[in-house]
Design goal:
heterodimer; A: 304 residues; mainly alpha; ABC transporter involved in vitamin B12 uptake, BtuC; 71% helix; globular; B: 243 residues; alpha/beta; Rossmann fold; 6-stranded mixed beta sheet; 4-stranded antiparallel beta sheet; 10 strands; 39% helix
């Protein structure tokens, strides 16, 4: 039970990072972006490429960081993949979503997002192959925290949790202490009022894509530290990330963080009572339960 | 031109192409004055003020602000030109505190921001006391004062107010309208859309009456308030007699 709880928290931190970007985009642009999870895939694969480049060009960066499986090259790659994924998110908006929202309805945007997801997934498969990749081939042993009950945790997992929490704290500080954070919240709450107060909507939309893409890249790399990296990352994570967003309430960044942890924990606790094959159904059940009981989620508000 | 802050020249505007709500509407707003637009529901009053603020597409005609053609210019650009708009509802950022609302409005004020913030707190002391409260928790009157404070933060030349007394108690409504009137003495031009007709006419300098998206009557507010025909058609003759 405690092991499942810990595993759930660790998974939840990754889902939260993915859900933050999704909730911001869904709230501001008012459409369910089913291609958001593919940004995690772009992030994870970009890091593979940058890791290889940095390790080759600067061999001293191939050294591991303390007890982690992560190398200095991979740590640098996270930053580079954040930039690439953020720019990819912006480019996708410029090429597809902006054009569709200028001419079509919100439903058109949803269908466009399905198309974008398919294109990204297949492009990744075409470039990197359909097989799996790992950031490291070394076996990383878990640390025994307790023998009764048996609790195991890997240093990588502790690192990803700490890093995810640090990123969330920074994001919280930006949103609650800076005028750019106020502007983002203002645009999400009332775009028309934000405009008449001198805030340029297109700049804020671009910023949301950049932030969402950057966070998705981190989530993708953190996911890859504990899992196999395959072109199916997006397919596998789209529902848990949507569940986290819906549980937290669309538009609530703090809700997305909490939603990520709730979904991660619920999916892992479910393993105690359900065969592991049923685990992927847990996000579905959570989405349905939340929509029936509290349609706006824990922190969401009805929009007019 | 020198004494005119805003001029609307024969605009056609609406939310749907080929279905204009405003048809050939003209208004002229003298500088440092209070001009009120009144008319029955559906007359196009709010659409007119939104069209001036850049929130509704203008299909034909021109809007001139301080000698500059601002037709079709984005609302965020208009804010930089000194034109502020206060919507009727949802006119503050509810999830931000009062201080955060004002900091957001003052973000381009640079080194002047602290002095302007202090000035706004002096003008609206009820906001200073509650500066750390969420705007969504304010009463209707306090919320309107915050909305006006947001509009004034960047020292606009003209403020467009869309029914600022809507939903307020008579006392709060009178306070808000009198405050708007007082702003004209500080060099701000006010263009007001108001349902609280009698009070607005008593405070305003000039009035335009719209109906079915067209100009009907205009003139000095005091004259229209005293005009029995206008009173009968637009204000309710009995109410005028009673007052």
């Amino acid at each position: 039970m405690i092991q499942n709880l810990i595993d759930g928290i660790l998974v939840g931190s990754t889902l939260s990072l993915g859900a933050i970007g999704l909730t911001m985009v869904m709230h501001l642009l008012r459409f369910a972006n089913f291609s958001h999870a593919e940004l995690l895939s772009i992030g994870a694969y970009s890091a593979i490429v940058f890791d290889a480049i940095f390790s080759t060009m600067l061999p001293f960066l191939a050294a591991k960081i303390g007890p982690l499986s992560m190398t200095w090259a991979l740590a640098l790659s996270v930053v580079a993949s954040m930039a690439i994924t953020a720019m990819s998110a912006l480019l996708i908006d410029r090429l597809v979503f902006r054009r569709v929202r200028e001419k079509g309805s919100e439903l058109s945007m949803v269908f466009a997002s399905f198309g974008v997801a398919m294109i990204i997934r297949n492009a990744v498969g075409l470039i990197f192959g359909l097989g799996t990749h790992h950031y490291t081939k070394d076996i990383v042993f878990a640390v025994v925290l307790s023998r009764d009950p048996m609790i195991l945790i890997k240093p990588d997992q502790v690192f990803t949790l700490a890093a995810a929490l640090a990123i969330m704290i920074v994001l919280h500080l930006v949103l609650s202490r800076t005028t750019i954070g106020y502007a983002l919240r203002a645009v999400a709450e009332n775009p028309a009022l934000a405009q008449v107060n001198g805030i340029r909507l297109s700049h804020m939309i671009a910023l949301v894509w950049l932030v969402g893409g950057g966070l998705a890249a981190v989530a993708g790399v953190f996911y890859g530290l504990s899992n196999q990296i395959s072109p199916m990352i997006g397919r596998d994570l789209v529902l848990p990330i949507f569940a986290a967003t819906i549980v937290g309430g669309i538009g609530s960044i703090y809700g997305a963080v909490l939603g990520g942890f709730i979904v991660g924990i619920a999916a892992n606790i479910a393993l105690l009572v359900l065969p592991s094959g049923f685990s992927p159904s847990v996000p579905f059940i959570i989405i349905l339960a939340v929509l029936l009981i509290r349609p706006n989620g824990l922190f969401g508000e009805a929009r007019t | 031109m020198g004494d005119v802050a805003l001029r609307v020249e024969g605009i056609y505007a609406g939310y749907v192409p080929d279905l204009p709500i405003l048809k050939d509407v003209h208004i002229t707003v003298p500088r440092h004055s209070m001009t009120v637009i009144i008319g029955p529901n559906g007359a196009g009053k709010s659409t007119l003020i939104k069209a001036i603020a850049g929130l509704v597409n203008v299909r034909a005609g021109r809007i001139i602000h301080e000698g500059r053609d601002i037709t079709g210019i984005r609302p965020d650009v208009l804010a930089g030109y000194g034109l502020s708009y206060v919507p009727q509802s949802d006119n503050v950022f509810r999830t931000l505190t009062i201080r955060q609302n004002l900091d957001l409005a003052l973000r381009k004020a640079g080194a002047e921001a602290p002095a302007r913030l202090a000035g706004l707190y002096d003008t609206f002391p009820q906001l200073a006391d509650k500066r750390h409260e969420k705007a969504g928790a304010l009463s209707g009157g306090q919320r309107q004062f915050l909305a006006v404070a947001l509009a004034l933060a960047n020292r606009p030349s003209i403020v467009l107010l869309d029914e600022p007394s809507a939903g307020l108690s008579p006392k709060a409504a009178a306070e808000v309208l009198e405050h708007a009137r007082a702003l004209t003495e500080q060099g701000v031009t006010i263009l007001l859309v108001e349902q609280n007709v009698k009070q607005a006419l008593r405070l305003a300098d000039h009035c335009y009456i719209l109906a079915e998206g067209r100009n009907q009557i205009d003139g000095p507010a005091a004259d229209l308030l005293a005009d029995p025909i206008v009173g009968e058609i637009y204000l309710g003759a009995k109410r005028l007699q009673a007052s």
